[in-house]
Design a protein that fits this description.
Radius of gyration: 28 Å
Helix content: 55-70%
Largest sheet: 4 strands, mixed
Strand order of the largest sheet: 2-1-3-4
Structural class: mainly alpha
Strand content: 5-15%
Order of helices and strands: HHHEHEHEHEHHHHHHHHHH
Number of helices: 16
Shape: elongated
């Protein structure tokens, strides 16, 4: 055996790492928590989170019942935003369905609609939108307005319809605009944080609740060695999670990996230390595993919401954009998207990697100091 390896195997640190690994492998709850939920969350959230508005329920009250009114309705349901049209008898019935949430948007076409068009007069229509879901309502109303403005535009003369500027649009990195490609990298980071926090806090509190913490204090190992022995097995298993998650997302969502997978693993390792650091901190502060689980959601939900994982950073109010600067998940999501989708290199991502490393060092230092105080 190599002398260096032989020295490592004979060290106290190695014995503690082996002990912690065996404890995790024997604990079916922790093993399940490490392997199963991250993969399920990645697949479910990656497929469910979709900013595109489609298949909304449309209802119309057509008092005109002419070819023009039918053409307008057909234009609205032609591109997938609205799944189908339901024709209703009157406005009262339409308002009832909007009130009960059965329809997202309603259109009322007056009886003089076609007559006004033929006389070159303004043909008014009424659009009723369910604004309970503000985001969906905004997209739906914009689509209706655009469809109405473009209605019968084909009858314009060639001179009026001629464009002075002809934009040639090319979508890079995600040409098919697959929404899961945007969400999966951020969800991967969220899973690392949540799993690392829950499992790390559980390992610390398990030692305290079972009374084995006192036995650790009787060993000749230092507090730093005990802490590192708890971190190393968890970080290793979280890296296995990353490999499985990226493989699964590639098989199911067709997620590419255009950059260095090793660089992604390094970034994931740094971010795993962030989650483990939060978990160690909670484990040394909370009195029970249930209390730590509740506190972990208090930490993880703001991290996810402020990271740009669910909502793009540019759409957030300025105040929350400033707060997100201190969110390590923000930098991991940027790194993961850059590597997977754009093939970004270390030279492009080193500022985010540096900030992620600083976050890991700060959080681990705080948790280590708290953990050492607990051992004293």
């Amino acid at each position: 055996m190599n002398p260096v390896i032989e020295k490592i195997v004979a060290s106290r640190m190695w014995a503690l790492v082996v002990k912690e690994t065996r404890e995790i492998l024997r604990n079916k709850y922790l093993l399940f928590l490490i392997l199963v939920p991250p993969i399920l969350q990645l697949l479910v959230l990656g497929g469910a989170l979709d900013p595109q508005v489609r298949n909304l329920a449309l209802a119309t009250v057509d008092h005109a019942k002419t070819a023009d009114s039918k053409e307008l309705v057909d234009r609205l349901v032609s591109n997938g935003v609205f799944s189908k049209n339901t024709e209703l008898k009157d406005e009262k019935q339409l308002e009832g369905q909007l009130e009960r949430g059965q329809k997202a948007i309603g259109l009322v076409i007056p009886s003089d609609f076609s007559k006004n068009l033929k006389d070159n007069k303004t043909a008014k229509v009424q659009v009723l939108v369910d604004g309970a879901d503000a985001y969906t309502a905004g997209i739906a109303s914009a689509h209706v307005q655009r469809s109405i403005v473009e209605f019968r535009s084909g009858e314009k003369s060639a001179e009026k319809d001629k464009q002075l500027i002809d934009p040639q649009i090319e979508i890079l990195y995600n040409p098919d605009q697959i929404s899961s490609w945007f969400f999966v990298p951020g969800v991967l980071g969220a899973c690392l944080t949540l799993t690392g926090t829950l499992v790390a806090s559980a390992t610390v509190l398990r030692e305290r609740e079972s009374g084995t913490m006192e036995q650790l204090l009787m060993t000749p190992a230092s507090a730093s060695e005990i802490l590192m022995a708890k971190i190393i097995p968890l970080a290793t298993m979280l890296m296995i999670d990353v490999v499985i998650a990226v493989t699964a997302s590639r098989m199911i969502f067709g997620m590419p990996c255009r950059g260095s997978f090793l660089l992604l693993l390094i970034a994931s390792g740094l971010y795993a230390f962030v989650g483990i650091g939060f978990g160690m901190l909670l484990g040394s502060v909370c009195r029970s595993q249930r209390q730590a689980q509740l506190a972990s959601f208090f930490i993880n939900i703001p991290l996810i919401l402020l990271s740009g994982t669910v909502v793009p950073l540019d759409t957030m109010p300025a105040f929350f954009q400033v707060i997100s600067i201190f969110d390590p998940l923000r930098y991991y999501a940027m790194i993961a998207r850059g590597i997977l989708l754009k093939g970004a290199t270390f030279e492009m991502l080193w500022p985010q990697l540096a900030l992620l490393a600083v976050s890991a060092v700060v959080i681990l230092t705080l948790s280590a100091n708290r953990f050492k105080r607990q051992l004293v």
